[in-house]
Each structure stands twice: as C-alpha cells, then as structure tokens.
Amino acid sequence: MGRIVYVNNEYIPENEARISIFDRGFLFADAVYEVTAVLGGKLVDFSGHMRRLHRSLQELSMEIFLNEEELLAIHRELIKKNDLYDGAIYIQVSRGSADRDFLFPTEHPLRQTCILFTQKKDLRSVKPGISIISEPDIRWGRRDIKTVQLLASSLAKVKAKQAGKGDAWLVAENGQVTEGTSSNAYMVTQDDSIVTRNLSNSILAGITRDSVLRLAAENNLKIEERPFTIAEAQQAKEAFSTSATTFVQPVIAIDGVQIGNGKPGPLTRRLTEIYFEESERTAL
Ligand code: PLP
C-alpha cells in the first residue's frame, strides 16, 4: 500500500493526489518547502522549521492559512497514518494555480497549494563519512529563501554521484564555499575552531546549523562564522556538513584530498552524538 499524503485539507492515498498543471509551484518554482526529520515517531526541530517556512513565505509575499499548531497536528497525523518511525516529512506551499502569467495573480484569495508527504529514512546508522567534490555555485541570489528552485543543486549532486562521491560543496565566484547542495558546510581548524559561513542571502540558514552551533557553544567549543575556501578546508583537521535528514555528516575528502586521517574526526563525532541526543530528547 502506498503512503497517505496531505493535499489541501485532505488525507488521501498518494496515487490519488492531484495538483493542477497551472500550479505556480510547477510553472515558476513559486513555492517554498521544509523538511523536518522524524525520529522515533517525533519531529526534530519542528518550531525552527515552521519559523523558517513562515519567513520564506513572507519574503515572497505569501501567507500560510495554517498556524503552527495546525501544522503540527497535520505533521503528527501523517506520522500516525503512515506509521512512520524514522524518516522525514516534506511540506510544500505554493502560491496556488492561475493562468500562466509572470505577474502574481490578482484574484483574491488565491487558494494556495499545500502538500505534505512522509519519507522513511535510516537516521541512526553510524556515518563512515563522505567524500565530496566542489562545484561552482550557479544558484540565484536569494538562497536564504527555501524555494523549490533546486535544479542547480540537483545538477551538482548528480555530478558528485557520477564522480563516485557523496555530495558537492558549492563555491562562489570569489572562491569561498557557500554551502553543500542540501546542507551547510563546516571545517575544523588546527586549533579546534568550528568554522562555517556566516548567514546572509548567500546561504540557507539551516535549522540543524542553528541547533548544532547552539549546542557547540553550550559545550564551550570555539565557533567562527565566516567564509572559507576549499583550499582551507582541505588543510583542516576535520570537515562536516549538517542538514535535517543527515544531522552531522562527516566529510573525509574534498576534491580527492583527504581531510585529517581520512576518518570522521573526534569533534565531528562529538557533535554527532550531542545533536542526536538533543534531538531525541527534544523531539515533539
Ligand atoms: N543549505 C541548503 C541549500 C539546503 O537545501 C539545506 C537543507 O535542505 C540546508 C542548507 C540545511 O538546512 P536544514 O538544517 O534546515 O535542513
């Protein structure tokens, strides 16, 4: 049996779900999304994801007709209906459907399209670390908005896969790493400082990033929020990335250059444990 998904107020079997061909999410990538991890049937960092969803919508002059309590109820209902233990829930909100026009439709209220579905994922296996490649960052300039405009990231990820690697880190024209294709990027300096790019329009403000940096600070670890280059990361003691569905992911080689001893470093492993424990403790 397929999944039960949510489409505009209805819980239906996935093969019965229908969206208009005129949906602006489909025609213009005029839609935003969130992915929240589900650990042991509970939602990780849920409030953070919903806060960012609201911000993304606001930045595109959209509003959502559901409040956080209602969104939580829908997420929980989907977990229940799909008997989801470990995995993720995807939510997408588009401006809705109207005849194709670059201008936003003026008819009010345009009915937004809101869909949610679950995905089963293994979130518990010990991560041996991934090798990554670097790729030019060819995405648009508002990467702080979590839109469904993901083709550039998808192409970079495919290139990494074709090279037999786990992911790509994206590099701006000035040579500085922005982030991973669907993760934030970090290196650990020789004097044990955790370095990750500062927040701006150039990167997505990762919810996992936020939690990991908070936990690192609480554990008296040194943090530097600043850009860094691939060359710097290749000389680093450790490297890793974070995202809602990979948590803390060790990076053990970049463009063929081994990081440290080529194994997940101690600080990365410590952050992996701290974040996992905190997620299990605070999941809703
Ligand atoms: N950066 C990009 C481009 C992403 O797509 C993602 C997640 O999908 C992240 C960073 C990590 O964000 P989060 O920790 O909220 O999953």
Secondary structure elements and pairings:
Elements: E1 4-7, E2 10-13, H1 24-28, E3 31-39, E4 42-43, H2 46-59, H3 68-81, E5 87-94, E6 113-120, E7 130-136, H4 151-162, E8 167-171, E9 177-180, E10 184-188, E11 193-196, H5 207-218, E12 222-225, H6 230-234, E13 238-243, E14 247-254, E15 257-258, H7 266-282
Parallel strand pairs: 7-8, 7-14, 11-12
Antiparallel strand pairs: 1-2, 1-6, 3-4, 3-5, 5-6, 8-9, 10-11, 10-13, 13-14, 14-15
Bound molecules: pyridoxal-5'-phosphate (PLP).
Quick overview of this protein structure:
With 284 residues, this protein is of the alpha+beta class. The chain is built from 7 helices and 15 strands.
What does this molecule look like?
There is one protein chain. This protein has 284 residues and is an alpha+beta fold. It contains seven helices and 15 strands. A hairpin with a 5-residue loop joins strand 8 and strand 9. The longest helix has 17 residues, at 266-282. The chain starts with a strand and ends with a helix. The mean pLDDT is 96. Pyridoxal-5'-phosphate (PLP) binds at residues 35, 179, 182-184, 204, 206-209, 242-244. Pyridoxal-5'-phosphate binds next to helix 5 and strand 13.
